[in-house]
Amino acid sequence: MHSASLPPVSDAHPDVTAFFDPATNTISYVVRDPASTACAIIDPVLDFDPAAGRIGYASAQRIVDHVRAQGLQVEWLIETHVHADHLSAAPWLQQQLGGRIGIGEKIVEVQRTFGKIFNEGTEFQRDGSQFDRLFADGDRYTIGTLEAFALHTPGHTPACMTHVIGDAAFVGDTLFMPDAGTARADFPGGDAHTLYRSARRILALPPHTRLFMCHDYGPNGREIRWETTVAEERRANIHVADGSDEDAFVAMRQARDATLGMPRLILPSLQVNMRAGHLPPAEADGRHFLKLPLNAL
Ligand SMILES: [Fe+2]
């Protein structure tokens, strides 16, 4: 899984526009090739009110408006992983703007696990075929003239990938800002040892690499932030900085994870996101339903 040699990190400097969703503390990104109009959308959010069972498009519409105002061509819609705290707007954005939806190839493990938990029938394919592209570790792709590659960084979930695009890396939930550390590693398929090694793998990128988080919760009342650098994480990350110890990290992570409740939207999110953001098939009358498995998580 961890290939010894990765593609070279290019020094191209993509334009990155962030979209913060206060309902789920998620940051979505539009990453643009400065030499063309090509762009990628990373981790877009579909609004969801679980009490009403109502879906909304306000967050995704902000991205559509930005892409259209800038005259951009969407080449990719990238999920850093199967999110457990928000629904993906990738298929809705694909309809509006085009582009291919991509995720890590280990999505098949996530589909196997949650296919069982949601008692899906055989019509739910566990082969990743709902996505347009499955990235393996080290896979290269382009956004216009920008060189990009995917880095497999499991631990939070088995399918987590970090996407390195020019001098910018989109780390998903493998790292948080330095004062927040790392994400939990206790979802099915998660592993704290693996998370530590993945975090350190990101921190082996060139020190000036810009790192963009998928989440920030503003610890200790500070303002929300989502951008840092490899050098800063290596110096100051409270969990995985230089000099940190894997076993101590694992003990800390497991103790902390044991105190955390499940994310509010985990059941709706997984059912939709394991289908690349598509809703489960409609019933005969055309309506869509989500399941609420009892005592399964
Ligand atoms: Fe996550």
UniProtKB/TrEMBL annotation:
- Keywords of this entry: Hydrolase, Metal-binding
Q: Which GO terms describe its molecular function?
A: hydrolase activity; metal ion binding; sulfur dioxygenase activity
Q: List the protein's name.
A: Glyoxylase-like metal-dependent hydrolase (Beta-lactamase superfamily II)
Hydrolase among keywords = yes
- Please name the GO terms of the biological process aspect recorded for this protein, alphabetically: glutathione metabolic process; hydrogen sulfide metabolic process
Entry superkingdom? Bacteria
Instruction: List residues of the Metallo-beta-lactamase domain.
Output: 25-215
Q: Does the keyword Metal-binding apply?
A: yes
